[in-house]
Amino acid sequence: MLKDMEEQTSPSHIKLLCVLAIGALPGFLVWQLSEGVLQGGDIFFALGAFPLGVLLTLFFLPFPLKFRIPLWLPLLSAIVLTSLGHFRLPTPVTNDEAAYLYQAELFSSGKLTEEIVGPACPDGASHCPTHRRQMMERKNEDGVFVRYAKYPPGVSLAIAPFNFLGIPFLAVLLASVLDILLLAKLARRFGIVAPAWPPLLLATTPFFLLVQSSYQSEVFTLPAALLGYLCLLRLRDRDGDPRWNAIILGASAGWIFLCRPLTGVIYGLACLPGLLRNSKGKLAPGWKSIRNCILGGLPFLIGALVYNHLQTGEWTLSTYHAYALRFGPFYPDGAPMDVYGNGDFFSGVIRQLGRWSVGVFGILGIAALAIWGLWQSRSRDGGTAFLLGIAIPLAYAFHWYPGHWAYLGPLYCFETIGFLTLGVFVILDQAPGFWRRGLPLAVTVAGITFYIHRFHITEEISELRNAHVMAAETMEGLPSNAVILLPVNPQSAKLNLPSKPPFSPKNHVFVRELPGQRQTLSALEEMGLNGRPLYRFHLGGTREFDTITSFR
């Protein structure tokens, strides 16, 4: 096992149960204090998974944790389950994903921005019939209104080559494969008895599967977090060329920064103790390695600054912040909510830890075992994994928005899931045989079941976002060249807006209705849509479409 672990005492049944109970507390707290963070029977499902482990242990009494499984099994699980999830969703679940795909489409066609044809949006989203949420619209230096995604460029750059080939989901699938392979290498380096079990646990975790069925940014930062951590361990073990290990570690942090800046900063800082703190009988990598890490990360930092300058006109004004200043949402005093640091810390911590407790592995409280394992193995990595496990949730507790609840777990902490998986097996390798046999089996079985149970919520959201498109395709008598207005209300703002200029004279066109009749008619005329049959979509009404003869 871990020869250099700081604690080698075998944990007792009582201690393991106590840690699980402590880990379950945030789940019960968030269930009571923050309505909507957990859905339906999530808390009861996760609670019921532990008795499942007991039953499986009794049934498979001779089954040892050191029972080796082939690596192709977790690889196949991840590929099949995430692919099935992706192809069952008619449209991305969040506007964030739509924005990443939109920018990837621009990148793959050699563009940074798209010119807006028709009425521009000088006064914000409510005055633009073609506004897409999470898209920045502004006038460029030539006086032309342009559109681009509000997010940093990293995720869209990762998707762009596959978008060019017409198979953007292949980028997500490749990320899943890298996660499994890198975690297997880390498990072997940690001395886990059966190194393919941590990848299998990851590949059957409901949180992992739900997120990997999406285009969320965290999908593309998790492989970098694992790769950088592997290079950190190689540096501390004096394994391989220290210069290149440090450069790759720095590049990993830089890539995370290019996708998710705050996470990239936290990741870089969390690696510092591992670079400076000695392990037993060995020197720490030291300042020379830190210099090489900076060298590896510098191109990504420069790339982020250049992208800011090209899109916002300022080197240090990010596209994310520029969007928040313009489109909100806003506090009553006019300050933007959607920026870092604008959140209730206590409420944020409860939300993050509550989702962590329930959703990470699908068994209530098991994340606490993971943190315990990372604390025990801190001499292995200088405490880096432990720091990441607690620092990322604490940092994002200050954010006004907790991350989309459809993905079950704490989305902004997704990069920690690989380290938590290792931490679980650090404890299980020391635990009594009853735990070593039952818990991995329970997590694997419960994880897949929980994922299937929970996926229908994700499906419902995806279908809701695409309801107007499906209704238009199936409604009899709707003219093929109809203009369909999405009404002015917060619920319809979440509907996907697939139409963009130039509009085909033979296809349906979806645009957002403006607050006033004159504004709407003027905008339609400016877009060349006047004279076409006009309908209003009713979300959840008795009639899906009304023919508009006059505005009400």
3D structure, described in words:
- The chain has 552 residues and is mainly α.
- Among the domains are: 13-90 and 157-216 and 338-462, no CATH class; 469-547, no CATH class.
- Helices cover 56% and strands 5% of the residues.
- The chain has 21 helices and seven strands.
- It has helices spanning 13-33, 42-59, 72-87, 95-108, 154-164, 169-190, 197-203, 206-212, 218-236, 242-259, 261-276, 287-312, 319-327, 345-359, 366-376, 378-381, 384-396, 417-428, 433-465, 467-474, 517-526, and strands at residues 114-115, 135-139, 145-149, 483-486, 509-512, 534-537, 545-547.
- The strands form two sheets. It has a four-stranded mixed β-sheet, with no helix packed on it.
- Helix 2 packs antiparallel against helix 19 (433-465).
- The longest helix is centred in the C-terminal third of the chain and has 33 residues, at 433-465.
- The chain is globular.
- It starts with 12 loop residues before the first helix and ends in a 5-residue tail after the last strand.
- Beta-strand fraction estimate: under 5%
Biggest sheet, strands in spatial order?
A: 5-4-6-7
What is the helix content? 55-70%
Distance between the termini: 72 Å
In N-to-C order, the SSE pattern is HHHHEEEHHHHHHHHHHHHHHHHEEHEE
Q: Unreliable segments (pLDDT under 50, ≥5 consecutive)?
A: 1-7, 548-552
Categorize the overall geometry. globular
- Secondary structure category: mainly alpha
Q: Tell me the major beta sheet.
A: 4 strands, mixed
Helical run tally? 21
Beta strand count: 7
Return Rg in Å: 25 Å
- Provide the residue-averaged pLDDT: 86
